[in-house]
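Ticket opened by: R.M.
Priority: normal
Category: complex prediction / small molecule

The reporter submitted a protein together with magnesium ion and asked that the result be attached to this ticket for the collaborator who will pick it up next week. Submitted input follows.
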Amino acid sequence: MTPEPQPTGPSTPAGPLVRLKNVNKHFGELHVLRDINLEVSRGEVVVVIGPSGSGKSTLCRAINRLETIDDGEITIDGKVLPAEGQGLAKLRADVGMVFQSFNLFAHKSILENVTLGPMKVKGMKGAAAKELAMSLLSRVGVENQAQKLPAQLSGGQQQRVAIARALAMQPKVMLFDEPTSALDPEMITEVLDAMVLLAKEGMTMIVVTHEMGFARKAADRVIFMADGEIMEQATPEEFFTNPQTDRAKDFLGKIL
Ligand code: ADP
Ligand code: MG
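Result attached by the on-call engineer:
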């Protein structure tokens, strides 16, 4: 077999930004990721939907190497994700992640939450990190909260801080795992709006969500997962109006 072409450097982007090739993952007897093949292009927004337990979170966690894989390969920007070591820390910095629970450092101010990563991992100086953090906080509309502690903010505000914090690492791709499912309904829109903005700015995004409005507004592609498999992929329009498999029809019947 001839080797796959590799990008020659950061100035000559080629190939998909994220690529999973025959990725498998078990938890004991449970086969949670079954031969996953997925390519995400630069600037592409992919929404992942599917029933609870289908492996969506595991997929995200594998891409960020919060979870190891049994076999197959994951590449970020042409580089194979290593199992551990310095290379991993560096590559992981290219992948921003926002979880369902906001996971902010409770005893640090909002500003510190955002400056910490760039200073510790990227060696950014305090003043530069602060400037970057303030511009990101203002992009997600919470710049006035910079001096507060996370608990003083609403859930929607905290989740927007979590987005700013991930962006502060200047990732190449952003993963969102059900970012609005822990929020009160009135706060969902403000978080989705920040994500739509990010998508429009050209960020590459993989978003696990059942928010169809977001999918229709921002997704280039919807992926439907069930039982650890990618069962369908299509444009949001195609998928929501004309799902192909019974599993997808059944699922959409339950959530729409
Ligand atoms: P989803 O995000 O689609 O709801 P998950 O990726 O969280 O699905 O989980 C897929 C399956 O793997 C579920 O059956 C879940 O119970 C199981 N699972 C997830 N994490 C672990 C773990 N750390 N150990 C054992 N089983 C797990
Ligand atoms: Mg999940």
